[in-house]
Amino acid sequence: MAPQLNSADERHLKRAIELSQRSLDKGGTPFGAVVVVQGQVAGEGTSSVVELRDPTAHAEVMALREAGSKLGRHLMEDGVMYASSEPCPMCLVACYWARLPRLVYGATSTDVAISGFEDVQFYRELAEASERRTLITSVQSEALRGQATEVLGAWVNQLPEPVEAKL
What we know:
Structural class: alpha+beta
């Protein structure tokens, strides 16, 4: 069972929903998000995909970009994401990348799917083995793979501490 929302949670979620309405009123898609860090709004975003011609300009990503710029950091272990709707797979993973410990949302992925958005389809697709997905992926030759892993190895060698493999 999900934890109950407190008054601050409700206030920030309402703001995310207001932002989704603002996006819709301006001709965009109905998504809004707010990142709160240490009780303060650090970033807000609306879906800007169409206006920016950027498929990654979802409300959650835009809010994270603003928060990162304002805070001068990309990790937000002390933050909360409030989203008008359950995030799509890309936005959910962006929350993980930002190390956000908590996510609060309004409409569910099912609600979003009923409204014609493809989030549920993408979640299903990602659960498939890569060879069964509709996006065709190709792994290049071992020589090119070797070159690519050399660059990764050079990065690892520059780090001050050993890397823990995340397999």
